[in-house]
Amino acid sequence: MAEQENDTKNQQLQNLRTELQKHLEKPLAKGDAWFLVDNHWFKQLKKYVGMEGAMFDSGGKEMGEESANPGPIDNKPLFKEDGEDIREHMIDELDYVLVPEEAWDLLVEKFGISETQEPVKRKVVEHGMFVKHCKVEVYYIEFQLAENSNLEETKKKKFSKSDTLEHIQNVMREEFNIATEADTRLWNKYTSNTYEQLARLDNTVQDAGLFSGQLIIIEIKNEDGTWPRQARSTGTLGTNGSTSPIPAPPPQPLGTSSSFDKKEGSPVGTGASTSTASSSRYNFSGTSATYGDGG
Predict the structure, then answer these.
(1) Any idea of the CA torsion for 196, 197, 199, 203, to the nearest 10 degrees?
(2) Coil, helix or strand at residue 277
(3) What is the pLDDT of residue 243?
(4) Is the model's pLDDT at 181 over the cut of 60?
(5) How far is 122 from 131, CA to CA, in rounded Å?
(6) Mean pLDDT of all residues in the chain?
(7) In the β-sheet with 33-38, what is the strand arrangement from edge to edge?
(8) Environment class of residue 123 by beta-carbon count within 10 Å: exposed (0-12), middle (13-18) or buried (19+)?
(9) Which of 5, 190, 241, 251 has its CA 20 to 30 A from that of 20?
């Protein structure tokens, strides 16, 4: 009887191993979801189901033994002490492994996940202007967010390169408690004295050329139908109620581009990339100038 149970268990483990290996061979495709799994837990899983060389490293003795059962997925080692976000500078296949959504669902079904832990889900993004390649975006880009009437008070928030500007705008409306009926538009601080309107909300963070640490501003339309930044052109710096100088059209700035490995490390602000043609940039020169609403 016991021998029959062992045979059944081994067959189940073999089926799990076969299905898992099939999922792990899945190629990267833009937009797909992949999950981070603690490497120590994953190594124990490989021993338990006899994947690759794991069963040979242990002489095959641990395959299927309950002492080798990894238990619920435990990603605690991947997180900072406060548990709010993953640790910086982690290395793929040393600190964590990446598994596609199908493999993650299978592992959760068979082993479960530790209580109070949220899955570390990441998207596959596409890089390269001419030669496209895909990678899992492990680390998000952190922006500083501010409301136009109070640029001194900023909030830090992380976004994926695949997030749209509309998503960022919705997050900012919530962060700054902006009424749902209020009209808003976004600007980003392009250089030390240049602001750029982010007019195409269907663009992604990557499309817009935004970089880590950049200031993004949400502007709320006045009740009279004008925009605060538009209204400044008719007044003086001392009467417009803002600490920001008045914008005047600048020369078109040159952009730079960055390249990344297939699976990236922590994001670092490297400089601005050129944005889409629909964006409008203004130089805050401190002199009065008349201009349109940039929309």
Answers:
(1) 40
(2) coil
(3) 38
(4) yes
(5) 22
(6) 79
(7) 96-100, 33-38, 121-127, 133-136
(8) middle
(9) 5
Q: Is the distance from CB of 248 to CB of 232 less than 8 angstroms? A: no
Distances (CA, A) of 214 to 24, 67, 204, 209: 36, 50, 15, 11
CA 165, CA 217: separation in Å to the nearest integer? 12
Q: Are 108 and 146 in contact (CB under 8 A)?
A: no
CB contact at 8 A, 194 and 281: yes
Span between the terminal Cα atoms of the chain, in Å: 76
Q: How many CA atoms lie within 13 A of 166 on its CB side?
A: 4
Three-class SS of 33-79: EEEEEEHHHHHHHHHHHCCCCHHHHCCCCCCCCHHHCCCCECCHHHE
Contact 236, 200 (CB under 8 A): no
Q: Measured in whole angstroms, how far is the alpha carbon of residue 179 from the centre of its chain?
A: 26
Tell how strand 141-147 and strand 215-220 pair up: parallel
Measuring CA to CA, which residue among 155, 154, 167, 139 is closest to residue 268?
139
Closest to 73 measured CA to CA, from 121, 33, 32? 121
pLDDT tens by residue, 41-60: 999 999 999 886 654 444 45
Residues near 202 by Cβ (< 8 Å), separated by ≥ 6?
164, 165, 166
Does pLDDT of 182 surpass 80? yes
Nearest Cα to 168, choosing from 190, 135, 140? Answer: 140
Q: What is the DSSP letter of 233?
A: G
